[in-house]
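User: Hey, quick favor. My workstation is busy. Could you predict this chain's structure for me?
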Amino acid sequence: MQRRERRAVGLAEVLARVPAQPAKRGRVPFVRIDLDPRADLAEFDTLEALAVQATVISGAVFSGIVDGVEWEVTADLLVRNPDGSYTPIMVSNHRVARPNPHRSMKALATGRLGMGQPLEVHAAPRHHTIDGYRLTLAMMGLEAAGCAPESQLGGLIGQDREWAYLIDVSRYAQATMNALLKPPPTGPRRVKECSTCRFWPTCEPELRASDDISLFLSGDRANTYRERGILTTQALIDASLGDISYIAKAWRAEIPVLRRVERTAAPRFDVEIDVDVEAYLDLGAYLWGAFDGEEYRPFVIWSGLGEAAEGENFAAFWAWLKARRDKAQQEGQTFGVFCYASNGENHWMLSTARRFHGKVKGVPSEAEIRDFISSDRWNDMFAVARSQLVGPGGLGLKQLAPAAGFHWEEEDFAGEDSLHAFLIAATAPVAEAEAARAQLLSYNGDDCRATAAVRHWLRRGALSAPLLGA
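Assistant: No problem, here it is.
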């Protein structure tokens, strides 16, 4: 429901950008028809809109049957081409393409749909299976209506709402058919989506009763062992296959982490700062949290993502971090900054520099950021932990910090919860927004403190974690 609400916000933003009428009155008529995909006659209304040759159609609905399997899809947008065919366009909360100076692809400006021609843009597509499925089904609906483009091009509008990136939909056709015609499973198997599925309370008891190996190795991770006839966790333990059998035994005993080495260690500096970033989708980073061992300091905005306010917020964080570094150097102290799994922080530091350096005062250059993240002042505690530990349930911060004795105040709050909380924090009435903001600050602050807790625990040798194979 939260994902649906976030998608509705994104779709509304896109529809507000799509032209409602031509920029200039001309000989070529421009007609936009907005359909209600929930209406009883939604599919009939779609065919009517196609029949009158509307320029832009939103909320179109198609359905069909393939080898006895029924399907239905809502096409967020259909855009008429000069030859009378229609290009299906889907709105996604994924990042569907990334800027790339060495690659190019065609794209339509969202604000010119139905009026503009495709442009060549320097970007590379990113594939998300569900987006490919939806586009393929929309293309199948257009083919049945005799309105599919010969080029088989469809569009995706992702987190960059300004562009509809064009892709060859035929590349997804076989995968879509495979998914449609794949026989329903005869029993459950745990996959990553189970953690947010309302049917998990039904499936879990059945999986536990059969000791299914997917409880330990989810998704396809157990395929190698299934091919060898190992279908249960106990069979994997009994197979004595080295580390994987020891790890399975630890999982069965609910041991969260094991040591690969006799005694663990972690980098040490006189002045240590733990940081954690929070971003909303790929639209921008709104919170940079920092913990110096005593005080948690958040640098935060609740609006203005992608605008100067985001750059100004990062500039304030960067200035504070450099001031702490300079003070340490002046006092003859070593200085180090830590995070847990640096991909997010690295991405947002570099992205912010690219977008705002030279435009917003105080935002460092990309070269300055690269110099920092490649230096020994920047330390990824996930990489440090992974080199010395193994976790039967993974080595994420939420798995490792409790083993180090740390617990979050927001105990049942995770990454996807933070996305929805930001939506509330940025758009809800004051009281509700303030509660969400407090929750996000608590969560981010505890992420910083948890990183510090893991570091100190590793320095003490992480002796509470059993030795692998012992």
